[in-house]
């Protein structure tokens, strides 16, 4: 069916599986997504002639095979007139290219995505790129991954690989094209086949969002042209062994595979350095021989480190990194180079006595607090956007991001290393990846070639991720664990890669033959449950390790809603709970907001308009997300069935969504965001919905002494009904907690709806934590017997309708801004100046430009704060000055019972 490939030595999926020869050195995928000019030709890439250079192709021209009648030989030859083709970035799905070229309207608005015909993407598409080479004396390799779903590869008119070899989004391929490369212009062309996540080991979306019509077909990682002399260095990595718990020493072992690509024997001089330690080895290689070269403390004493710089997650310590450089020389000339960045840390995750996976990092206990990561729906890589979201994770006090499939490019893990965000990568659920083991999924059964692709995928990802200290584990299953054959393929690949951290068989409560039990649970919920749900040590409550869970819907701010939906859609949003919501999910289970809207009306009262609906949603999301993280935090050090980890499902969405997000597509922050930020404060006072205890949780490494906790109950009008202060508290660090007091079961005269204010001060009398709850004497009632995989029904709602009676109170605001080195900081002082007793509940400050639009991203010191009469709070907002786009900043202040106003902040 396809032309026979040119006779040439090549390295494909098979060699990756057998020898792990296909590992890219760090820096191989350094090109960021570049904006492309509509209707322009693909930029020709100038390839470096330096030995060891890896040059990513700068972009492609793409076109449907339905519109190209020319032969593959013609399309892949220099000088081919790609007239009418669409420009694409270096990493681009077909639809991403068409969107950049203005073919379709904004897919994130309304139902525009639904209007894109899927039929256009049910045929292969051509990806074509030109590159220039000056020196043909060096060996040249085409190095790539990220093909979705498969591709025939052609260079200068000749086929060099077929789709039977180049399959799977994660398999890595290195093709020796030395014999084909000419001085001057060269052409590479990929004939990319359509993607079907149920048939291909690639990427799918399940119920996360409305799926892209092209199903992400394309090339989503860099295609790199690599140059070398006769000897190439591959599979370079560093293994580390840290002395735990002393952290006093660390042993490093450097490994690389020296490969002779010539037809004659050679002697290579391999030299390396880490910091001030240098090492070298002379290696003799027969023609086409590959040999592993190892440097260890036994032969290189400098690789035994004393007082090593240890890498920690954010909040537990610093994030120092080490650099390895290697050079292979032949006859005194550089033949190839390799570079790796790595960190020194120790990760262990045994099962505790209750069977839950308990992580420890560098000998210290770790409560995993994280969120599920989503890439852009069209897999468009934007380094700044990814870094902004990782900074948000740190701002929220999270320590982990889970990637269920959709494994981001190298730069993502580089950023995670630098910002101290742990990552939990793994394969995705329910489609082809689990077709062999998940009877409720939609994926097809595997054949022999699928097993080979899966093992190759594992080998490539293990080699790519192993040196990143941010990688906490790899989950080789999601909803289902692999069977014995699949597990063996994965584990063989991981062992061959010297995989350094725990391997988990599934994100659910499942087991695999070799690895045993996962120590995780996937018991939901995924839709609305009340805040008190999280405190029960059952189902999704705060016990064990819950790999994906939340109370479902997360209604964005009004600013975001107006950017993503039409006025008619917004009208339906608050009026009709049974309406299908396109921006929620394609799943019939999550297609509407019925469960959420019923609870919102039952607890807070029916919405009276869009603004009222959104403001009630923010209270509901704040209290629920806060309770989720607070419950897991409180239970982390329990002797009986402790909480060991929780992943909020999800951290973000890949498009404009109404559910599963702590931050929205535009990086705006709603009640869910600030509820999480409040719950994960370093030193935090909190209320327990189950037993009414007031607890102090200390997430700092060191203990805290001389603390004072105060708890006060108020009616909505501000009348004080209960007040108690406890002094002299001591709470150990690393997530320990102490109980300050327990609120009485009843308080005389307390309103059905009431407020609880908690204030924690340190030994110097400085306020270090403030937390305000809105509660009811009428609790939410759960029907545990009716629990499904996605939620537990609520049969009776807490009565919070009394909040609607709160008097409107004025809050003044003054703001100033300072800018330095591209960063601006706006300082906002809020003051409750009302003359009565009513507090200002959940007062929000939004940074806006001169047109009143949010300035994003922004990191607030605190927000959505509650103030009692006469109280003042000062907040800071930090952001890029350029995101003002030349406008003067302002601060828009609003709240539950505070009139909206905007003040200048210049």
UniProtKB/TrEMBL annotation:
A family per Pfam: Glyco_hydro_2
Annotated Beta-mannosidase-like galactose-binding domain residues: 82-194
Enzyme Commission number(s) of this protein: 3.2.1.165
Positions of the Exo-beta-D-glucosaminidase Ig-fold domain: 789-898
Signal peptide positions (record): none
Top EC category: hydrolase
Listed InterPro entries: Beta-gal/glucu_dom_sf, Beta-mannosidase-like_N2, EBDG/EBM, Galactose-bd-like_sf, GH, Ig-like_fold, Ig-like_GH2, Ig_GlcNase
Superkingdom field: Bacteria
Biological process, per Gene Ontology: polysaccharide catabolic process
Annotated keywords: Carbohydrate metabolism, Glycosidase, Hydrolase, Polysaccharide degradation
Keyword Hydrolase: yes
Region entry Disordered, spans: 32-54
Domain (Glycoside hydrolase family 2 immunoglobulin-like beta-sandwich): residue spans on this chain: 232-345
SUPFAM superfamilies for this protein: (Trans)glycosidases (SSF51445), beta-Galactosidase/glucuronidase domain (SSF49303), Galactose-binding domain-like (SSF49785)
Molecular function GO terms recorded: exo-1,4-beta-D-glucosaminidase activity
Keyword Hydrolase: yes
Protein family according to the UniProt entry: Belongs to the glycosyl hydrolase 2 family.
PANTHER family linked to this entry: MANNOSYLGLYCOPROTEIN ENDO-BETA-MANNOSIDASE (PTHR43536)
UniProt protein name: Exo-1,4-beta-D-glucosaminidase
